[in-house]
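Q: What would this chain look like folded?
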Amino acid sequence: MAALEETSGFFTRRGLVVGAILLLHVFIAWALATGLARKAIEVLAPPIQTVIETETHKDAPPPPPPPPQFERPPVEIPPTDTVVEVPTAAATTAISNTTTQHVAAAPVVAKASVKTPAGPGKGFPNSEDYYPAASKRLEEQGVAVVAVCVGPDGKLTEAPTIATSSGSPRLDEGALKLAQAASGRYKPGTEDGKPVASCTKLGIRFQMR
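A: My prediction, written as structure tokens:
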């Protein structure tokens, strides 16, 4: 009796398992038939979409053409009309087995002479002594430039002249009188240290004190 109960219980559990498996297969078959399984699969695992992108290759621009090469025209050198003469060697004359040699003379350099102009010498007059009285009353002042020519003896060789006026005829006359009175008291000009005749200009100032 106990063995029968155990056997019946075993078959009962086994029957339940077999029934559950059969029901599962029936449900799967029904789902496949109605498309429910496909929808469930799409929900759980969506389909993989593959996007194929085509890679476009951009062609590099072609290199620029090389610059044109120009041929330089030949340079023509015009013929010159200059004729260069080649000096011929001088023949030497032998006398008694002795040759004469010609030595070129060294160039002579002219030495520049040292000159000094004439000017006032010892005892030369003072402009105050030849200041015109009328110019003093009018308070005239100025400088008269007198041109004089002096000989080697310190004396005038010709009458003095006014080179530049002082602006007053009276002052110019007083300057001429002073230059004329100084004849023989001029220091003559020199050339290489020797007294010579020369001409020069003297500025004679008349100024109120």
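Strands lie at 94-95, 98-99, 115-116, 119-120, 142-150, 161-164, 186-187, 189-191, 194-196, 198-206.
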